[in-house]
Amino acid sequence: MSKPTIVLVHGAFADSSSWNGVVAKLQEQGYPVRAVANPLRGVESDAAYVKDVVTSVSGPVVLAGHSYGGALITRAATDTPNVRALVYIAAFQPDAGESVFELSGRYPGAKLGPETTDVLEHDGEPELSIKPADFAEVFAADVPAATAAVMAVTQRPVAQQALAAPFEGTPAWSKLPSWTLVANHDNAIPAAAQEFMAERASSTVRRIDASHAVAVSQPEVVAEVILAAAANVE
């Protein structure tokens, strides 16, 4: 039986290269992998792009998202019948009416906020990035300093409305099996918020002492969680 394709969706303040270490581990196990270039413009439009990527894949898909990418897979998988499992890597698992901003602020501990973000007006709309001086602490505290410094200056800004808009529709985690990796030392999405969302979704949970950038700092563990979901599909 052929292996499912694993489609990876990065979150805000990052790009597809954040999955590089994970991709290598998955490919070593013989899995076809796609890493989506997330537009970071809005949940509905970004999820539609993810859906287009998924529907272009022949055969079953395991859909994995990091951070804001979790909101996108939750939306995209509602309309993509070839998605068989969801994987949330330090990610949002929203329900109807919830926004990324609201979920990240529901529990104490988040260091991502107005004091650690820069705002750029683009086409009349604000987009956000993490201040380079704060990037390591907020996003990548357990990543080598030199790597975190590069990540800080190559980060992808996100449209503010993408993080503020309420989630619409039925979440895919209510219908599909899901796996969640909780990053215990996450300063962007508090671990308590990740635990709440995972429990609500009845996810299979693994926990690790890592920062928000767990796919960069601990790619082996991230790959193991994704492989556990993929094994359930085969």
Automatic annotation (TrEMBL):
Keywords assigned: Hydrolase
GO molecular function terms noted in the UniProt entry: hydrolase activity
Gene3D superfamilies named among the record's database cross-references: alpha/beta hydrolase
Annotated protein name in UniProt: Alpha/beta hydrolase
Annotated ranges, domain AB hydrolase-1: 6-225
Pfam families per the UniProt record, alphabetical: Abhydrolase_6 (PF12697)
